[in-house]
Every structure is written in structure tokens, then in C-alpha cells.
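Can't paste images in this forum, so I'm doing it all in text. The chain is below; anyone willing to post the predicted C-alpha cells underneath?
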Amino acid sequence: AQKVIDDCIRLGYDIVCFDDEEYPQKLKDIYSPPCVLYVWGKLPDFDNSLSIAMVGTRNATQYGVMTSHVLSASLSKLGVIIVSGGALGIDTASHIGALEAGGTTVCVLGCGIDHRYLMSNAQLRKNIAQTGAVISEYPPGTKSFPHNFPVRNRILSGLSDGVVVVEADEKSGSLITVNHALEQGREVFAVMGNINSRYSTGTNKMIKDGATPVTSYLDIIEAFPQYSIESSNTSVELSARNDSQLNTPPVKHRVDVEL
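Text version of the structure:
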């Protein structure tokens, strides 16, 4: 335990224990909450803010990347916390959308924060930590074992009021997060997709099974009237980057935010 504490001091990570004031009540209320969170950055005020998890396939299409980027940016402009897992595809686009909109995003890892996981996103994680937080229940030095990530997904949904699946096939790991969300009593949303795309088979099936279909960020915030989110009419210029890890061409689009 002392070595873990020393490592966190050396690396600049905070240790948030279950009985600490900073530990989110939302997370305390789930089944099997983590007993400790390792935090790079600063945990936002989850318990007094609407927080939405954005998840989906790593092999995102251009449509999926653009949609994730637009939804995250639009929600962030309204003060919504965006939670995702830091992976390629939908996760990356969601984090970038929130950051470019000047919002707060949180990345939940399935390994130690210092582990050399997906180094193409190392700068992205650094940017997230500057205004939000990169968190893990695993101490520094923990490798990215495959079995860690399905377990990690309960934290993604646990920190959130709702989970939005943008693109996923019928066997996607994102559906593990959805199952956690349903067990935790969270709202589940799915973005309607191309019926000819394998990466929309999971989301389209979710809608058939009762998930709330998403055609706009308004579909999400209207499900949470308790937060009384208000915004004046505004226009947001967004640019989905040509990051090599996204495997998409440059996209420029305009989002009209109207409430």
C-alpha cells in the first residue's frame, strides 16, 4: 500500500477512497463500486451535474465519428459531463468533441493510468486531465489485461445518468456497458444507424428492444428534466479531426443548438 501511495505522489495522481467527500455518490450507489479511484486531474461534480457516457465501436465509420463529436460537443456546451473509455473510434471522437467545445470529459481506463496503453492517445489523455480527469480503479503499473475492461465498464455507466451507444455491432463490448446501465437503473440511448452497416446492427436492435432513439442531443437532455438545463440559441462550429487513429477523412460541419 505504501508503494502505491508513493507511486501516486511521484506521478501526481490523487487517491480517492470510498469514504472520501470527493467520491461520487452516483458511483457509491451501484453494485460493487470500486473501493478506491486513482485520479489524474480533478473529478468533476458528478452528483450535481448531468453526466452522459458515450460508447461505441473502435472501428467507427465517418458517420459514427461525426455523430459522437457533435453530440458530445453540443452536450458539453450545456455543461454536461462526458464520460468515455479513451479507446479508438467513438470514445476518442467523444472526448475530442467535449474538449473542443470547452467542456469537461472524464476518461475511465481499464489499466493503471501510467501504463503505456494506446500511446497514440497519450496526448489526448493529458488534455483530458487538464480540464477533467483520467481515472482508474487499478493502481499505477497495472497492465491492460483484457478482462479488466468489461469490469471497468460498470464505472462508465455508474458515473453517468445515461449511456449513449453511437455505433455497435451485436457482439460489441459496448453492450456490456449497456447491461451495467440497465442493472444500475440508468437511461439507455442508441443512435439510429444505416441498416446496411454492421456497426449499426447493435444500436438498431437496442432501439427495437426499447432503448431511446437519438436523433439530436435534445433527445438526451429532455430525458433528465430534474437538471433544468437551459441554453440560449447559439451556433457551434466543429471540426472532426483527421486523426490517423480515427481512420476518417476531414469533416467540417455546423451544429445549430436551439432550445
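The CA atoms of residues 21 and 45 lie 11 Å apart. The chain is about 35% helix and 20% strand.
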